Backbone:
């Protein structure tokens, strides 16, 4: 019997990957670690998943825990059960807020990952760890100026925010365990947007802030853009590509020990992205050159500017992000399992249409 432990349920990735993992292994049972405050939401999400696919019904246990505490805050009986079976771990829980306070980011992203790795080590010592599936981010690169390869991690890069920094430190914890022999696959998504076909997403953040600013204007839309917007790449990928990639590689032996860059091989520039958003929304883009430092100052300190733009200043750094992500090895690995990344031009239409049709979706996500 295999137990599959999920952290981060019922977030987007956990809700998408849990049923697919159970379908991959008909003998597996899932154990979803849930914070107490999300237990009701988790029960509803699980019920929806089981209604959609009766084959997974009754195969998931929701357990209350907390990754920020030793032992993941789990009852000792749950730990004993996990260590008594073959164990696969999907560590998905993290704080994704770019403006997060440092102490929260470190406690959740770094300490939480350390506690998950501790459990994985115990399972490996008992001879029962199948694999630790860890979701990181491309932005462990920080603001590295140049091409960042899948196996790069320590290049002396600076960091623009506590999210990027703490995810880098968390990946260091996982990479150290991997290098010591733990079976691990590390997944690094870039900026994740809506489904490539439906455009559906749980939240509107990141590039959606640019989109909402454009669509709140008339036929000619002014867009403050930094110098070099025609050269700086903005790497965004649809959510179904990320889910498909992780789900397929999680059962692929060749992915053990690998770091996978789930990024767009041919990303648009910031200007091209803005032009595509404007065109899909029936607007004509009129770029207004503006340094990001000036825009950030205005948003944070000039009365009325923040309400006008509705763009968190923390997101502006990504409009001048200097890093390019090499995906050659990942593209080849994904080809082995029949997964490829859709082009931005092919999914920007559904992305914009879903945004326009669903004003009820906000910018907050479960953490």
Residues:
């Amino acid at each position: 019997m295999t137990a599959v432990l999920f952290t981060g349920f019922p977030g987007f990735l956990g809700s998408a990957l849990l049923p697919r993992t159970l379908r991959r292994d008909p003998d597996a049972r899932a154990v979803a670690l849930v914070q107490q405050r999300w237990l009701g939401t988790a029960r509803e999400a699980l019920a929806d998943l089981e209604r959609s696919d009766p084959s997974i019904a009754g195969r998931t246990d929701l357990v209350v825990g907390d990754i920020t505490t030793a032992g993941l805050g789990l009852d000792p009986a749950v730990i004993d059960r996990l260590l008594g079976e073959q164990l696969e771990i999907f560590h998905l829980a993290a704080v994704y807020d770019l403006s997060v306070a440092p102490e929260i980011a470190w406690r959740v992203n770094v300490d939480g990952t350390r506690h998950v790795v501790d459990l994985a080590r115990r399972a490996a010592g008992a001879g029962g760890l199948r694999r630790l599936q860890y979701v990181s981010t491309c932005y462990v690169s920080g603001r590295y100026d140049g091409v960042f390869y899948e196996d790069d991690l320590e290049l002396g890069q600076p960091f623009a925010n506590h999210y990027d920094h703490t995810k880098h430190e968390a990946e260091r914890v996982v990479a150290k365990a991997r290098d010591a022999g733990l079976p691990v696959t590390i997944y690094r998504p870039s900026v994740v947007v809506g489904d490539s076909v439906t455009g559906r997403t749980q939240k509107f953040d990141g590039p959606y802030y640019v989109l909402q600013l454009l669509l709140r204007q008339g036929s000619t839309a002014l867009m403050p853009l930094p110098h070099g917007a025609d050269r700086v790449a903005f790497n965004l990928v649809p959510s179904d590509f990320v889910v498909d990639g992780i789900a397929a590689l999680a059962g692929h032996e060749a992915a053990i020990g690998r770091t996978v860059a789930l990024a767009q091989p041919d990303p648009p520039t910031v200007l091209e992205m803005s032009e595509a958003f404007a065109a899909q929304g029936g607007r004509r883009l009129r770029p207004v050159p503006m340094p990001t430092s000036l825009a950030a100052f205005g948003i944070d300190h000039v009365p009325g500017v923040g309400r006008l733009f509705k763009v968190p200043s923390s997101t502006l750094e990504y409009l001048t992000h200097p890093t390019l992500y090499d995906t050659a090895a990942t593209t080849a690995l994904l080809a082995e399992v029949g997964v490829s990344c859709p082009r931005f031009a092919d999914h920007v239409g559904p992305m914009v249409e879903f945004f326009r049709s669903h004003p009820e979706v906000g910018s907050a996500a479960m953490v």
